[in-house]
Amino acid sequence: MMQEESALFQTYARNPLALVKGEGSWLWDDQGNKYLDFMSGLAVTNLGHAPKKVSEKLKEQIDTLWHTSNLFVIPKQEEAAKKVAEVAQADAVFFCNSGAESNEAAIKLARRYFQKVKGEERYEIITLGKSFHGRTLATLTATGQDKVKEGFLPLPAGFVTVPPHDIQAIKDAVNERTAAVMIEMVQAEGGVYPLEAEYAKQIEQLCRDKGILLIVDEVQTGMGRTGAWFAHHRYGIKPDIFTVAKGIASGFPAGAMIGRAYLKEAFTAGSHATTFGGTPLASSAIIATIETMQEDNLPERAAQIGEQLMTQLRDRLSGNPFVKEVRGLGLLIGIECEEPVADLVAAGQKHGLLFVSAGPNVIRLLPNLYVTEEEVNQAVDIVVSVIEEKVPTPSL
């Protein structure tokens, strides 16, 4: 189908490739061509495509019960919440459908905690430049990138964005209206920038000193992607609220807002709701995803193989004038280049490798957590090849 014939709103600059089948690390298009997938549906298919246990649990649930309502007890949802709380090292979970909704819930919880529990008129959220928190009006306002805000004025009040890695800027922004600081441990959409460990610790301490909440957006970094169940575990910090979506249900639409026990008092009956969050189907996918990850120690595996991938890329691309830096955490890796990389993304596809950019000049690699060493070697060969074709490394 030609794009102009589509009945869809054209909100995506779609690649004309039509993918119709997936298994493990591989995808096939409608012409029978095979591709090594280093996108994982943008960090969604963390277990690879069509993981067996998740598939089996979904098929079983489809034949039993799809939907009731959150006005009733949903046993699968209760089970899923306990599993999420366990691996997240937290106390309370609210299920929804997406990352943006998870972040909306986090923003609402922070405001309501102060206004209804603490009796303080606090509502402002401090966020960082280069961040990305979603596409709803509130979450795009929270996002530290102006490009997502064009044409959506007026934006909601209550958000202040400061430069990253400037603790004084956060201190200067805190006032009597501040409810929380909201950060990503790795600014994935903003260019794959991991926060410096000391800076993250300083933010946590500032929140404690000022009596405000720390929110961590783990929509892309959660569920083992960065080599731990959640990236903030690697940093040794303890947020009051954090969010997850993407990898939580292996491709079934799901998200969660996770918090500490003392915040339960803020979200009482009728204060927040969802129609499709935590349905029996979504909960079954979440349970199966977590159980699979636990059985095979996938967060630890992601840390190990991610280090191998990063080391190979740094070694192979060392000295190439087109490459500025290789950085990342676990299996979330960025290659910053001197110029835009859209042509390299297209070249990779022609060589049978799918990857994506993170901003105009950064190649982003997001293989699944089961990716093999052989697949890593194959991907590195292709990435290096397309970069060398564009700008060869000078001979010594």
Give the SSE map:
Blueprint: E1 19-23, E2 26-29, E3 34-37, H1 40-43, H2 52-62, H3 75-88, E4 92-96, H4 99-118, E5 124-128, H5 137-142, E6 159-162, H6 167-173, E7 178-183, E8 186-187, E9 193-194, H7 197-210, E10 213-217, H8 231-235, E11 241-244, E12 255-259, H9 280-295, H10 298-317, E13 323-329, E14 332-337, H11 342-350, E15 353-354, E16 356-357, E17 362-365, H12 373-390
Parallel strand pairs: 3-15, 5-6, 5-7, 7-10, 10-11
Antiparallel strand pairs: 1-2, 2-3, 4-12, 8-9, 11-12, 13-14, 14-17, 16-17
Structure explained in plain terms:
By secondary structure, this protein is an alpha/beta fold. The chain folds into two domains: 3-51 and 297-390, Aspartate Aminotransferase, domain 1; 52-295, Aspartate Aminotransferase, domain 2. 36% of the residues lie in helices and 18% in strands. The chain contains twelve helices and 17 strands. It has helices at 40-43, 52-62, 75-88, 99-118, 137-142, 167-173, 197-210, 231-235, 280-295, 298-317, 342-350, 373-390, and strands spanning 19-23, 26-29, 34-37, 92-96, 124-128, 159-162, 178-183, 186-187, 193-194, 213-217, 241-244, 255-259, 323-329, 332-337, 353-354, 356-357, 362-365. The strands form four sheets. A seven-stranded mixed beta sheet has the order 4-12-11-10-7-5-6, sandwiched between helices. The protein has a four-stranded mixed beta sheet with strand order 1-2-3-15. The protein has a four-stranded antiparallel beta sheet with strand order 13-14-17-16, with helices on one face. Strand 8 and strand 9 form a beta hairpin. Helix 2 runs antiparallel to helix 9 and helix 10 runs parallel beside helix 12 (373-390). It is globular. The model has no long low-confidence stretch (mean pLDDT 97).
